[in-house]
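Notebook, bench 3.
Goal today: get a predicted structure for NACHT, LRR and PYD domains-containing protein 3-like from Erpetoichthys calabaricus so we can plan the truncation constructs. The sequence was checked against the plasmid map this morning, with no discrepancies at the termini. Length recorded as 1236 residues. Pasting the sequence as submitted so the record is complete.
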Amino acid sequence: MSEDALCEKFVSMISRKRRSDEDINTLSGLTQKFPKVIQPFSHEDLLKITEYYKPYLAYVIEYDITSILQNLATKNILTNDEAKRFKAKEEHEGQAGVESFISDIMKMDNAVVVSLWEALVEELVRFPSPNMTRILEEVTEGGPDLLKTIQASLQPAPIDTRIQGLHETHRGGVSESTRTLEDQASPGDPRTRAVGFETRYTELMVIKQYKRTYSERLHELEKMGRTHAELIEERTKEKCERIWTEQLFRRSPGSDTDSHIVVVSGVAGIGKTTMVQKIMFDWARGTQYQRFAFVFLFKFRELNLLDTETEPQMPLTRLIERHYKYLNDTRLKDILQKPESLLFIFDGLDEYKHKLDFTQRKFPLNPDDYLPLHILVSSLVRRTLLKGCTVLITTRPTALDTLDMERVDRFAEILGFFPEQRLMYFKKFFGDAGRGSEAFQSVEENDILYTMCFNPSYCWIICSVLKSHFMTPEEERGAAPRTVTELFVMFLHNILTNHKREAKDQQEILVKLGKMAYYGVANRTLVFYDKFEMSTFGLQPVLSFPFLSGFLKEILQRESTLEHTTYTFYHLTLQEFMAALSFYLDPSGGVVELLVKLESCNDGRFEILTRFLAGLARPSVFKTLGGVLGEFKVKTAKQILEWVKKKTEVALRGQDKREVLRVCQWLYETQNKKLIRDTIGKDLKMNFIKMTLSPLDCAVLGSVISCCGELEELDLSWTQLTSECIMRLAPGLICCRHVILQSCHLTTECCSAFSSVLTAGHSEMIELDLSGNDLWVSGVSELCKILRDPNCKLKKLRLWSCGLTSGCCSALSTALSASHSPLTELDLKGNELGDSGAIELCEGLRSKNCKLEKLSLASCLLISRCCSALSSALSDEYSRLTELDLSHNELGDSGVTELCEGLRNTNCKIKKLKLWSCGLTIRCCSALSSALSTSHSPLTELDLRGNGLKDSGVIEFSEGMRSKHCKLEKLGLWSCSLTSRCCSALFSAVSDEHSQLTELNLSQNELGDSGVTELCEGLRNTNCKIKKLNLEYCRLTSRCCSTLSSALSAPHSRLTELKLSYNNLEDSGVDQLCEGLRSENCKLEKLSLWSCDLTFRCCSALSSSLSAPLSPLAELMLSCNNLGDSGVTALCEGLRSENCKLEKLSLTKCGLTSACCSALSSALSAPHSRLTELSLTEIHLEDSGVTELCEGLRSTNCKLQKLWVCPLQNTKNVKRSLKSLQEELIRSGRRIDISV
């Protein structure tokens, strides 16, 4: 790797991992203390500490073992050969290899072990690691007493001889109940087998609470999927502290006590109950949690059964005895005498029918006190009962709001499986590493299913289906599932095929099961009781049917406890699938009522069910399941697809990007290309700016867009994307003509992901915007390889602010000169290319193969030295360049003078030249004037704003403008230090018979009234062709308005746009201006009067102008003037006139209240209203005003398309009312973009 490449890689790495000064300062104290703490330990003690932390250190080191090894090699602690050997072992064995590395270090002398710890401290300062920070805090705070703390945590709790027998009985009972998992022998096989817990258990990723930013409308599994994707992409080890289950109850650094109240959250099927079983299993084996003499597990679903009328209250002792009959012993009270040695686990708070009660109680409670169960549990958490005991509660996120989180010592979240854990699960499930790897590889190729594998229950279902698939001979296999619906259809088909002879009324039983499933989805119920729901839905009488019993073992998990039997679907998504399926099987399924319910529910509970409804409406599904179930209801499918199509069309017309993504999920499940093409079309512009997209979302978008065949534009700007996201979007990107990915956190790795998109023979992409991403030299070099491919059709490439240097210019030059290069536009602004880079780029510009027409090198650190090369490129015979932007470079007069040589060349084709803020003065004006007056000069647009040309420079420049050869149409002289003295020369130029100037920008120059008065003489001249004039910030007053009015009403006036904002015109000035506006000669269409010290007094004149018979005014900007309600009311009289042609009106910060809303409403609903855009930001809006405004917007006469409202108070009500109106209008086929 070259030195430049190494340097770039380092800068890239630092920029991604950069930490705030505050973070570094916080760590500095810790890192200074740590060496003083570690040094005094004896070698033997240090080895014990290192052994204790080994798994956690291995987790930290594995992230970047290279840096640790380099650190140790640099200090000669390790030789280079030893470092390479350890690195190779880590690459081959993963975390086990890292633990082996630590073990080998521990075999060396004390100095080496100390050096390892010191290296970890040094790396922590450079790169964040919450886990390493925690380890250092524990060691630093523990100091000399750390070993005692460690040894105490490993020692079992002392057991009183009196309860020793009960302890051993309990440990044996827990061991027996946790040592196995029940598992199906194979999909479709009703037999179950006991699998050793350890053979199937795969470690889950558990972290401290992670941020939640997603709308509550999202389904909880979808939210976790997004969080999971974020964490993988943002490097989990940098962002979150991982918690191993054995750490849950340990003391946190800075705390005086162990964690007594612990809450673990996780979505359905993520592994909460399995984690609880692991805790119980490890305790019973004696490997972990030995400070607890007794561990008690209670499931909230069982507590529901105990909360009965016959026994509404019970003491804690009774609760324990009901669950552990062998503890029905007088010695139980002795056990409860030492609460600090007790762990109570309550699993599944979300399944509990009561809310926990945290109302303050003054007196402590006793284990014999009779209490309602929810009070009993709450009292343990509040520590008013058995103070000192430890409580663990598991729950889905949906029930977190029922907890008093202030009382929680530790909150953890289960994220499920990360990529390496997914593979491990597959290998364990298949029992054959090779077959498991093969199945996993097939899942990796399916973006949707692979992303779902974060959830262990999904993993189980996927493995179940694929095990059957891969056990079938290859020549007999059908296609593997692609969508979630296909996965569950195949899952169900396998089961039904195996049980098809066991019951004649399969369909009827499935309908009952589906209705119960739907009831559960609608009421957020996961647990079904044999004497309640199973009975209600008619399933209890047929529990003994062979079909149902076999079927249930594979669909429902059966659990007998406390004289009851409970049933749960193996996964929430399986429940949702069965619920959706029931509407296709039952002719009286109430599909219409269901669709109404889906419309009204916004909390996400029906989201996955809706996807299944869409996915089941496919002929292939009818064929697959129809073979075993009989005919499906095609009418249901038509109803649902029509509803999906309607919802999609409404979403595409609206502004809710999340809703668009949501309907795309439904469309994806249908796999109905015709439906997708008909609904989305090919001319649509899709916008997902500033959204959070997971790889799963990207896969769905990629697939849906690919079905369209062609899409006009896809904008994902300010959306964090990875190379994985780009790869999953690829099928859709190929079909997009214009793709905008500004500031998407793309890196070098992402550039290679574009290869398949841009080089595909059927690629439609002609424009790609990657601006604002750290692509660096290596990324652009990769892009340039793609540009040289003969299949690449890209014409426009934008790379502004991409961290580029001169190092990429050779590759760009080569790409431009490639024989089949299609590129016509290249934007490189905001990159530090320097003169050397620009000079190298010019070699490509001179190539006969180069087709570039537009080039931006603004803010590229250029100076005069590159201008000779640029001049040469412009004058080359093969040059096709028509637009060049060199703004914000210190070219100076000498550079621009040199550039003008090229502009004067007969081969030069430049029409538009931007030289903003280039450090120019009067000295270059002669050369510019000469370039303009050259007989073959093609220059039509020249922007010189922000240069100190001054009056004398403009006077000299104007000579060229008067030349008969000058073709200049647009001239920018904004902020060029001009005064009234140059206006005579400008007047002469614009009134010259050869003048072709149509646009002139003179804003931010102190022209004053006298200067503008002189300029107006030119505007009145018959030769003047000026259409657009900008005089903002020109120190004007009312005294120049009469002259301006005269110019507007001149017989030959061509002025269509006039900007006078930020001048002190006052009411009297606007009154005079309005005289010109009312003239039949006036052609003004756009007038800007922002902040001109206007009041209500000028509004009558403006109203009169709007209603003038020949008024052409279409845009009026009056923001930042104190017009008040009376002024706007007067203005509305003109808006209601049949002569008024106004389309855009800005009234931001005009001192408005609800009092003007009636008049505005009347204007919007007027029969002749043409208003399409209205801005009312910073208005004092009450409910009454909103109501009146909505009446006007609701009118069929209203043509408004965009409305900006920013109320100064009552924001929530305004938002609610306007959003409701927006949705109402969309349903009626109208669309108004309302921004609140």
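Residues 61 and 98 are 7 Å apart (CA to CA). The chain has a mean pLDDT of 86.
Flagging this for group meeting.
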